[in-house]
Specification:
606 residues; alpha+beta; Pheromone ER-1; 5-stranded antiparallel β-sheet; 26 helices; 10% strand; binds zinc ion
Length: 606
């Protein structure tokens, strides 16, 4: 399929609520769903998704459109890539060629190179004789065939050019492989060689399951020990792979995260794989670094509750602290997971020993503040005033960062108990540390989302009245006549004149008593006025939100009031105009004009 046919087919097959729901937590609101807008900063949701009309619209910043516009905006994609992504979701085959070759983007090429490499590695792991050591690794780790399959584990051939040769035989250029991170430039000369050689391959996939890069682990020798050389080799930063945006396992974990209302963040890929294999699937890894604001933006699509599990070494601890700061600052609820002493050194170990231990550790994860308190109590010498003072000072600093005062005082009490210090004294110190700056609680929106949105110009009350009235007429056809007549003699705001005159034409030319709204929109669409059809849909959405709860008589009453208000606004505008014209006429000494204006003003004063 190609052209508009494809677009329509994709729209028919996909529900906008599901597409948007992959990114945002939507809550039902009447016939629509709502969320906080991903395109501007807000605390109360004004972003609506309407399944019936298949549109989204933010009444805060004015962003709106269909599934294609949403995905483009959200993912920072060009239309062809958004089309491809949604076609894949909808199971619609795109016709290759036709209008496509030219638009085949660089990004797409690199994703395809990675996907093909992942397939090659996976196939080799399954049945190539060269992959024997990798299969032993899989066996030692007791990874099931299902796990190998769903994580697409693989083996990279121990060769300088086998991967490149294979991919180049499939039409990729040397330079594309380099830009995909699959090959490395040779130190001498101009050649390239394969980056991943003789390693266990873990494809890293984005939220949609596209392979964006790899982590490659060295394979243990026959003695089970890792040979020399780096244990892990990773894809470098490329056009499609950015470590600070990636979350290992997110494509498989996302629906579980949403269902559980909770994401568990671990450090290692094997932690994720073992946990998923054991049936705990709301788990992802953050590639061993502190959480970034981009990763938090990704989480926010599915949940605002995180459980962090970091290795108990000092690097893990400082990563954890930075991650906590970021997440708290971005408004997440954060708990810390501690493995019980007999559970092994990392989640992978723990799951292997007993998955119930792992589940229990997740369920019992403690508020991050009590994790701080516990760490401090383990390290503080309570017989030393100096040591106590330092520890209390550090903890107070963490408490000062909390956005919520009720929480703060809870932890002050805990702190007072722990250090046997009067609460009042701690409160005094907290006060001196200062209130958290109001900027806290906001992360920078991701690059994709931060495409600057100019807020619409502030609306005049007249605009609002007319928007409401048209919306009322569109949603409740029994009000059409009242609205059409009520607006007939007025001067409508520029942006709404055309919509009104089309509606009037539609209204007078059709005699259907049925539901007018959808008919009007298709009436517009059939006249090549799809932009106006969308404007109508947004007004309907707005009217439904504003008046949806009212009984029929309430709707009629509201319509009457709005028409009354519209008319008196018209009069006062006209009066202002006349007053302005009057002073101009006086300046010009135009007596004729002055008389005329006086007459009209006199008639207006009722
Ligand atoms: Zn918005």
């Amino acid at each position: 399929m190609s052209g508009d046919g494809v677009i329509d087919e994709i729209k028919r097959r996909l529900d906008i609520a599901e597409v948007v729901g992959d990114y945002l937590q939507l809550k039902r609101a009447g016939t629509s769903l709502r969320a906080c807008c991903p395109f501007h900063d807000e605390k109360t949701p004004s972003f609506f998704v309407n399944p019936e009309r298949q549109i989204y619209h933010c009444f805060g910043c004015g962003e709106g459109g269909d599934i294609f516009e949403f995905v483009q905006k959200m993912e920072g994609l060009e239309f062809p890539d958004a089309l491809r992504l949604l076609a894949g979701k909808a199971g619609v085959k795109l016709q290759p060629g036709r209008g496509d070759d030219g638009q085949r983007s660089e990004r797409r090429r690199l994703l395809e190179a990675n996907a093909l490499a992942a397939k090659l590695y996976h196939r080799l792991l399954l049945d190539d004789e060269r992959a024997a050591a990798a299969r032993q690794y899989v066996e030692r780790r007791a990874l099931s065939a299902d796990t190998v399959e769903s994580f697409m584990l693989g083996y990279s051939p121990d060769s300088w050019d086998a991967t490149s040769k294979f991919l180049m035989s499939r039409g990729f250029s040397e330079s594309e492989l380099f830009r995909a991170g699959l090959s490395v430039k040779s130190d001498r000369g101009t050649g390239h060689y394969d980056r991943f050689r003789g390693r266990m391959m873990f494809p890293i996939r984005d939220v949609h399951g596209e392979v964006i890069g790899f982590t490659a682990r060295v394979l243990p020798g026959a003695d089970g020990r890792d040979p020399d050389g780096p244990k892990y080799v990773n894809t470098p930063q490329t056009l499609v792979y950015d470590k600070s945006r990636a979350l290992y396992g997110i494509n498989l974990a996302k629906q579980h995260i949403r269902r559980e209302g909770l994401a568990v963040v671990v450090e290692g890929n094997m932690d994720v794989i073992s946990s998923h294999q054991a049936g705990v699937e709301n788990v992802v890894a953050s590639s061993g670094t502190a959480l970034t604001s981009e990763q938090l933006d990704l989480f926010r699509r599915f949940t605002d509750r995180l459980v962090l599990s970091f290795d108990a070494d000092s690097a893990g601890e400082s990563a954890a602290k930075r991650g906590i700061d970021m997440a708290i600052g971005a408004g997440f609820s954060v708990r810390m997971l501690r493995l019980p002493p007999d559970a092994g050194k990392d989640p992978d170990d723990c799951v292997r020993r007993d998955v119930e231990l792992w589940k229990h550790a997740i369920a019992e994860a403690e508020p991050y503040m009590s994790w701080y308190l516990n760490l401090a109590s383990e390290r503080t010498d309570f017989s030393s005033a100096e040591s106590k003072r330092r520890a209390a000072g550090e903890l107070l600093q963490e408490i000062a960062k909390m956005p919520n005062q009720v929480e703060q005082s809870h932890w002050i009490s805990e702190l007072a108990r722990m250090f046997s210090t009067p609460e009042a004294m701690l409160f005094e110190q907290l006060r001196r540390l200062g209130r958290p700056s109001p900027a806290r609680g906001q992360t920078q929106p991701s690059a994709a989302a931060s495409t600057t949105v100019t807020p619409p110009a502030r609306k005049e009350r007249t605009d609002i009245c007319v928007e409401y009235l048209l919306g009322l007429a569109l949603v409740w056809s029994s009000l059409s006549q009242t609205v059409v007549e009520g607006l007939a003699d007025g001067e409508l705001p520029a942006g709404l004149t055309e919509l009104y005159s089309n509606y009037r034409e539609f209204y007078t030319s059709t005699r259907s008593d049925g539901e007018k709204a959808p008919i009007f929109r298709s009436w517009l669409a059939s006249r090549d006025k799809s932009a106006m059809a969308r404007q109508a849909a947004v007004l309907e959405l707005q009217a439904e939100q504003e008046f949806g709860e009212l009984p029929p008589e309430g709707l009629r009453e509201e319509t009457g009031k709005l028409i009354g208000e519209f008319k008196s606004l018209q009069i006062s505008h006209r009066r202002q105009e006349l007053v302005r014209a009057m002073s101009a006429a006086e300046r010009n000494g135009d007596l004729e004009k002055i008389k005329e204006i006086q007459r009209e003003l006199g008639e207006m004063t009722v």
